[in-house]
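Technical annex, item 7. During the second reporting period the consortium partners agreed on a shared format for inverse folding records so that results from different sites could be compared directly. Each record opens with the tokenized structure and is followed by the designed sequence. A conforming record, contributed by the partner at site C, is shown below for reference.
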């Protein structure tokens, strides 16, 4: 297996690339122009190519020359490409009708279409959780701070709210405090949702004691997590703290931890619990 690691923005591509290096995996890197913004610091033997949105032919040629068998897409993409404004190479012009059909629908539909497009060309589509499962949140309390009792009822209500948002292809998270749904994640993402929670608290439009409440992140129902995996990072810890919440509950095995060491250090410093929960089970951890 030889993987083409397609990199968008943020630190996730770096974390994944370093995990692949640690496993001595055979891979190359394709950086999306205008999106990939983190220096991965790769050794010389790993081939790297920067590809623009319209350079479909150049991209496919690179995969062929490098003898890639699988693709793995990671990192953020700020917006879908504006097809009328793109300058396509010859390879892009040839598959323009297919590109138009790929970009039709909600986020989940687009991701499924992209996967189908790769598979039609003989490439296997591998997800982060399959390639580097160690980056995912495990079951149990992974922060070191002591928790007398987890807010089980709030976690369960937040899980239901997050799944409802996911069912509507809105987002992957929700915040509950004092047995009340405070926010559900939409297309703006977790960071903006937590900013709304902080504004709600500051405006006293909902009230909860400092240290109450929880953020829950989980995969959407029937989500293709090969492309779109829920993540949290160190900044999530700080925003949870600013919102006056007690901690974070994550679907174990389905949510990635960015910059794990830094994340857990911050969680301990700010006394924010980070808990991995198997949502297939009927009871939350106690």
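Designed sequence (site C submission):
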């Amino acid at each position: 297996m030889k993987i083409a690691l397609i990199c968008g923005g943020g630190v996730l591509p770096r974390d994944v690339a370093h995990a692949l290096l640690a496993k001595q995996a055979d891979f190359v890197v394709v950086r999306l122009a205008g999106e990939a913004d983190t220096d991965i610091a790769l050794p010389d033997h790993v081939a790297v190519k920067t590809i623009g949105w319209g350079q479909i032919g150049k991209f496919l040629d690179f995969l062929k020359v490098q003898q890639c068998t699988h693709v793995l897409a990671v990192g953020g993409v700020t917006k879908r490409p504006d097809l009328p404004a793109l300058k396509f190479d010859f390879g892009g012009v040839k598959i323009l009708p297919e590109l138009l059909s790929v970009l039709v629908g909600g986020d989940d539909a687009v991701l499924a279409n992209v996967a189908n497009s790769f598979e039609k060309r003989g490439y296997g589509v591998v997800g982060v959780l399959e390639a580097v499962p160690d980056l995912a949140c495990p079951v149990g309390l992974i922060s070191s701070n002591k928790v007398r009792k987890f807010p089980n009822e709030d976690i369960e209500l937040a899980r239901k709210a997050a799944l409802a948002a996911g069912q509507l292809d809105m987002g992957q998270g929700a915040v509950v405090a004092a047995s009340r749904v405070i926010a559900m994640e939409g297309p703006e993402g977790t960071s903006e949702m937590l900013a709304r929670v902080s504004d709600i608290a500051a405006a006293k439009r909902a009230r909860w004691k400092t240290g109450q409440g929880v953020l829950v992140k989980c995969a959407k129902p029937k989500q293709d997590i090969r492309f779109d995996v829920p993540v949290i990072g160190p900044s999530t810890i700080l925003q949870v703290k600013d919102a006056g919440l007690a901690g974070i509950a994550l679907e174990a095995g389905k949510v990635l931890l960015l910059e794990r060491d830094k994340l857990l250090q911050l969680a301990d410093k700010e006394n924010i619990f980070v808990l991995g929960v198997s949502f297939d089970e009927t009871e939350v951890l106690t």
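The chain is about 35% helix and 20% strand. The chain has a mean pLDDT of 85. All partners now use this format for quarterly exchanges.
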